[in-house]
Design a protein that fits this description.
Layout (H helix, E strand, L loop, with lengths): L6 E7 L3 H12 L6 E7 L6 H11 L3 E5 L6 H16 L5 E5 L4 E2 L3 H16 L5 E10 L5 E5 L27 E4 H6 L12 H12 L1 E13 L14 H9 L1 H21 L5 H12 L1 H10 L7 H12 L7 H5 L9
Parallel strand pairs: 1-2, 1-4, 2-3, 6-9
Antiparallel strand pairs: 4-8, 5-9, 6-7, 6-8
Helix pairs in contact: 1-2, 8-9, 8-11, 9-10
C-alpha cells in the first residue's frame, strides 16, 4: 500500500455468489486505485469462496480470509476489523465498508476521499471524521427502482446529529468512509457484536468525537432482494400506523434495542463531552430527564407515531424493562 492517501476496503460475504462479481468489479473499476480490499467469508456453501479466490488470484490488492470465529452478519465485520488491526494496525489513511451485493459508482472512493481530505484541512487530521453518500435503489436484476434512500430517511446528521441515537434510520455502511483518526478512536465492541451494526457503531462515534458530512449524491446502487440483511426505513400511513400501534410491544422492543446500542457506544468512550454525558443519563434515567433532553434538543426523527412512542418509551422508562437493558449493560441502568 504505497503512495499517498492509501485506503482499505472491508467486505464480508455469506452465500453471495449471485451478485458478488458485480460488486467486486465495481470496486476494481474505481477511478481511485490505491486500495486494498480485505474480504472475510463466513462459511459460504454456494460457490462464493471460489469466486473470491479467482478474484484474489487476478488482483493482488484483494485479500481473502475465512472467518473461523463466531459467525453472523455483523460479527463477521468485527472479526475482520480485529484481523486487520492485529496484522496491519492503522497503516491506511481512509477506510471503507462494502456489501456483497451492491454496486459502487466509479467515482465513489475518489469523491469521499476528496471530502475527507477537505474536512481534515478544516478540522485537522487528528479529528475523527466520517462522510457518507445517498443510495439509489435497484431491484435484484440491477434495474433502477427510481427511488433513493434519502426518500425514506429523515436523518440530517449535520444539523441534527443527535437524532442518530434515537432512530432506526442510520448511516448505511456501504455509503460511508472514515479517516484514520476515527478508525483509531472507535474501540471495537467486546460483547453482543451480532446486535451492534458496524455502520451505526462508527457513525455514532463520529458524531460524538468528531464530525460527519453527507454527500447528497447516490454513489452506491443498493440492490433489493429476498436475502438482504437490512431493510429500508419505513414511512407509515394511517392504516399502517394503526397496525403498528396494535403491536406496540414490538415497537417498544425495537426502540429499546436502538437505545441500548447507543448506550453501548457511550459506554465504550472513556471521556464524553457534555452532549455524551447528557445522552448517557437520558438512557440511564429515562423519565422527566429523558423527555426534557429530547424536547430541548428537538429530537424528532421518524413519523409522529414513532415520536410519540419514543416519548412514551423513555418517559415511562419502558426501555428499562426490556431484555436489552436487563441483561448486558456494563453499568446499572438505574445509576444516578
Amino acid at each position: 500500500m504505497s503512495g499517498k492517501k492509501q485506503s482499505v476496503i472491508f467486505m464480508t460475504t455469506y452465500n453471495g455468489a449471485k451478485y458478488l462479481s458485480d460488486q467486486i468489479n465495481s470496486v476494481i473499476n474505481q477511478s481511485f486505485g490505491d486500495w486494498v480490499l480485505f474480504i472475510s467469508d463466513d462459511g459460504s456453501s454456494d460457490g462464493t469462496i471460489e469466486i473470491l479466490r479467482d478474484f484474489e488470484s487476478l488482483d493482488p490488492r484483494i485479500k481473502v480470509i475465512q472467518n473461523r470465529g463466531p459467525h453472523g452478519a455483523y460479527i463477521n465485520y468485527y472479526n475482520l476489523f480485529e484481523f486487520y488491526k492485529d496484522n496491519y494496525g492503522s497503516c491506511a489513511d481512509y477506510y471503507f465498508f462494502c456489501d456483497q451485493d451492491d454496486y459502487w459508482h466509479p467515482d465513489k472512493m475518489r469523491t469521499e476521499i476528496d471530502v475527507l481530505s477537505r474536512m481534515e484541512r478544516q478540522y485537522g487530521k487528528r479529528c475523527p471524521l466520517l462522510c457518507y453518500t445517498d443510495l439509489e435503489l435497484m431491484d435484484a436484476t440491477g434495474n433502477s427502482l427510481g427511488s433513493f434512500m434519502s426518500d425514506y430517511s429523515d436523518i440530517d446528521l449535520q444539523s441534527h446529529p443527535l437524532d442518530l441515537f434515537f432512530s432506526h434510520c442510520f448511516v448505511w455502511g456501504t455509503t460511508a468512509a472514515i479517516n484514520k483518526a476515527l478508525w483509531e478512536a472507535a474501540k471495537l465492541p467486546v460483547n453482543n457484536r451480532n446486535d451492534l451494526s458496524h455502520d451505526n457503531w462508527y457513525a455514532k462515534h463520529a458524531v460524538l468525537l468528531g464530525h460527519v458530512e453527507c454527500i447528497p449524491k447516490p454513489l452506491v446502487r443498493y440492490r433489493r432482494h429476498d436475502s438482504n440483511v437490512t431493510g429500508l426505513p419505513r414511512k407509515y400511513g394511517l392504516l399502517k400506523a394503526i397496525r403498528r400501534a396494535m403491536a406496540f410491544g414490538d415497537v417498544i422492543d425495537a426502540q429499546s434495542h436502538m437505545f441500548w446500542s447507543s448506550f453501548e457506544v457511550l459506554n465504550s468512550i472513556d471521556s464524553l463531552d457534555w452532549r455524551g454525558e447528557e445522552l448517557k443519563k437520558t438512557f440511564e434515567r429515562g423519565g422527566y430527564y429523558a423527555v426534557r433532553f429530547m424536547w430541548k434538543n428537538k429530537i424528532c426523527p421518524g413519523s409522529r407515531f414513532h415520536q410519540l412512542a419514543r416519548y412514551i418509551n423513555l418517559g415511562l422508562c419502558l426501555h428499562k424493562r426490556t431484555h436489552w437493558f436487563l441483561t448486558d449493560c456494563e453499568e446499572p441502568i438505574n445509576a444516578k
